Amino acid sequence: MLTEILEQPAAITRTLAALLPASDDVRHLARGRTQVLFAARGSSDNAATYGRYLSEIVAGRAAAHLAPSVATAYRRDVDLRHALVVCLSQSGETAELIETQAWARRCGAATVAITNVARSSLTSGADLALVTEAGPELAVPATKTFTAQLVGMAVLARALTRNAMDLRSAEDLAHVAHAVATVIAHRVDVEPAVRMLAGRPRTLVTSRGLAGAVAAEVALKLEETCLRPVPGLSYADLRHGPIAMVDDRTTALVLAPRDGAVLDGIAGIVPELRARGAAVVTIGGDARVSRSADVALPGPDLPEWLAPIGLAVLGQLVVEGVSRTLGLDPDAPRGLRKITETDPERPS
């Protein structure tokens, strides 16, 4: 897992080089399609959440998650003639998503597959395949394939903008690999955060907006590799009830971009969590966020729309360290495999 985390700057560079030239193909395929729908499971579903926010915030297109069970369990047709359906699977061989993509095309959608395997069932069944270049991933927890999917989401959203984004967006994308490499170069700085998370029995992860997808992903990674139930919630949802569980047995991991619309709210939740007895570890944010934390990790030097990519890498480094500290094997979590069957006993 750690080896593959360290490979991410190169994986991001390769993925941008592979996907940016397909931007015109994305625009052509999406012509006349007013809605973007995402279908995925697991880590890919968290990447899809980032894509949904980008589609609306950057591209100005209505977006939502498409429930695969509508296609695979209920088998109901839906009018998708005005939809662009994006299916994400790192392997491209998740049977439920292959079936969902085929169903979407029958219902009139244009389909895009985002996967890390060029010759996969998902790519062969799509109108357009965006193949990330993360390289083979051996550890069960998705790291470099997940960040490559986030890059894919950024490229997709940029291509879907009705008005071409300014040149600064291209410069921002070109800076992502360097920002991630800088984060990795200072990975020893995560050790205080690792000790704090390992030292208390309860953990929660929170953020909001674009970074909320990464909060959910880091929580999932902690559950997979550390064998603890870990909620990953928007701080808005956290305040609507779950915050009642926060006490002096809790470590809260708070993720924040360096700027943007949700930064004030994230800065406000940190002292609130500490007032309830939680130890708070922050990743990113500004001086207000870091001053309020027990342990503060500097975030990536990226604007809000791309910050989740760097925040994800920092989260992965923390998770890998916590798993090792707890005496577990982060490479091969108990009972998990690389490709998951959603309903292994369900007949096709």
From TrEMBL:
Keywords: Repeat. Gene3D superfamilies: Glucose-6-phosphate isomerase like protein, domain 1 (3.40.50.10490). InterPro entries: GlmS/AgaS_SIS, GlmS/FrlB_SIS, SIS_dom, SIS_dom_sf. SUPFAM superfamilies: SIS domain. Residues 25-170, 193-333 form the SIS domain. One of its GO terms (biological process) is carbohydrate derivative metabolic process. GO terms for molecular function: carbohydrate derivative binding. Transmembrane segments: none annotated. This is SIS domain-containing protein. It comes from Nocardioides glacieisoli.
